[in-house]
Hints:
heterodimer; A: alpha/beta; Rossmann fold; four-stranded antiparallel beta sheet; 10 strands; 38% helix; B: mainly alpha; 10 helices; elongated
Amino acid sequence: MTPALQLEALTKHYDDGTVALENFDLTVPAGAFFGLLGPNGAGKTTLISAVCNLIRISSGDVRVFGEPADSTIARGWVGLAEQDINLDRFLTVEETLVYHGGYFGMTKVDAERRAGEMIDAFDLRAKANVRTPKLSGGMRRRLLLARALMHRPRLVILDEPTAGVDFELRHELWRYIRQLHSEGTTILLTTHYLEEAEELCEEIALIKGGRLIARDSAHGLREHYGADSLADVYVKAMGV
Amino acid sequence: MTGMLWLCKREVLRVYKVWTQAVFAPVVSSLLFIVVFGLSLGGRIRMIEGFHYREFIVPGLVAMAMMQAAYSNNSASIFQARSDRYINDVLSAPMRPWQMNLGVNMGGWARALAIGVLLLAAAIPITGAPIHHPFFLILTVAFGILLFGALGIVVGIYAETFDHHTFVNNIVILPLAFLGGVFYSVSRLGSPWHELSHVNPVFYLVNAMRYGLLGVSDANQWLCLGVTAGLAVPVYLWSQYLFSSGRKLKA
């Protein structure tokens, strides 16, 4: 079966000389719930940006369901919720979703119908006609996630989707993401909440300094490192 | 193509949402120029190239308003999208670079055209200015907004702060417009100012507009159109290069 994501010898050197990723190999199976853990600056966001065509990679190969990540077909299969809130300040909640759907090739009718579904699913109905700068932090986070899922992507990339989110909303988002995964969508999650990764992810990769340190299920990692919890694994693997 | 059309629509929607400052304000300020300089003071100025002063300044004012609108709209739009990082929503979408470039250019073109049409609709009855060569005028407008819209994209992509965007408008475009013969005929200037004016690219745009509307120009009309087109194409290709290469848009 073609993997959802395949990175081969991915290298990214930024203009200031920073080496974010060096000969990085990773394969994420289709349908997986995959976690990517590592400290700030480990290269997680760079990896995600490479998959989503948001950086110019130095070398290597990135494929999404077998297609080059920079091809238009592959881009249409990926949905991204970035770590930072990056919503179009001129658009309302509904417009944000409809226009995103349009950018990803949806027709007006389909985009409006799907936007309605997303608005209901993420409890944004009361704010549907409100412009994004006027939303609360929690509402913006919901909208960011709804936008990522708007065009029904096969691979959903969530870069710290619950950062700064209160406990209730976090559990609500988990529930929705789980449901999405159960329907066959591949999920790539980065998070600093280790319990979140342990509870949600079938497989976890630990990365540090642009290199892959370990990769296994949470159970496998605990056994490998002789640790009681994923937090202990993290401490040992990262040398914290 | 669907993605590009939605991007075009988004850029036009942005103009529509801020129409009072994006369209209404430039039309009013240009009309004030016509009223103050053309109608109030114009009576003290003798005919220029066979036209009353109030008629003579209309083409230059329309050109100046349109090019400033095309530039500042696109520059601000792309800068805001980069600054707030919602440009990522476009860059990650299944659109080709030429579609992205065309899509983001559309806002400036729409805004400039709206201003041009409204300004002419108001200025022609007030001043009595004619439209002598409508086809030539359309070509001039097309290349003019292509040039300044693309320049806005380039500056908006390179700009590190919002000041960079306003700097180019206030220190480069506006002075060149004023010195390009918006309010006077360059043929009346003595040497070396007469020759120096021909180095100013805006001089050619203003005179191409003047030929399209009034049928007169300080230089050959085809030279004026050719210079405007000759600048518009490479500047548009420059903005295209930035989208194709990802330079300054992607780390």
